[in-house]
Amino acid sequence: MERGAGEHGGASEWALEVGKGIYSNMPLLLFMDGALLVAAVPTLVTLFAGGFLLAPLVAALTLGPVWAGTISVSDRIICNDPASVRTFVASLRCHARTGVVLSLVPAAIVTALLGTLLILKSHPNEHWLFIPLFVD
């Protein structure tokens, strides 16, 4: 089915089909939410253990693959393709590298920003340190 229009050309009919797909796959969506929650645990442990500079990078490594797999299965659900836990696991394997690579970009930026803030906190009278902060 083409996105944006149903078989009869109405956008509301397409929205109804998407809603039916989401409703019929609610257990799978809840399972994927749980997988995202479990994948966030190492990041939270790193953060609360004092490694706040490493937390964004840990998030990229643990949440990135699960996030990419969730996006892939969600796309299948919206397109009314069959989706299951087996599909989700296969999507995790297929899209893990892409998820990590895409997540590393914002993780590196946030890590640089946190590092700059840490340096600025230890040297509050050094006003030139605001330049790297604005660059980050």
Written account of the structure:
The chain has 136 residues and is mainly alpha-helical. Helix content is 77%, strand content 0%. It is built from five helices and no strands. The protein has helices at 11-24, 26-48, 55-78, 85-122, 130-135. The radius of gyration is 20 Å and the shape is elongated.
Short overview:
With 136 residues, the chain is mostly helical. The protein has helices at 11-24, 26-48, 55-78, 85-122, 130-135.
Secondary structure layout plus pairing:
Blueprint: H1 11-24, H2 26-48, H3 55-78, H4 85-122, H5 130-135
Helix pairs in contact: 2-3, 3-4
Please give the count of helices. Answer: 5
Largest sheet, strands/sense/barrel = none
Gyration radius from CA atoms, angstroms: 20 Å
Let me know the average pLDDT: 87
- Give a count of the beta strands, DSSP E runs of length 2 or more: 0
Shape: elongated
SSE-based structural type: mainly alpha
Low-pLDDT residue intervals, each spanning 5 or more residues: none
Taking the alpha carbons of the first and last residues, their distance comes to 43 Å
Instruction: Name the helix and strand elements from N-terminus to C-terminus, one letter apiece.
Output: HHHHH
How much β-strand is present in the residues?
Answer: under 5%
| Overall helicity | over 70%
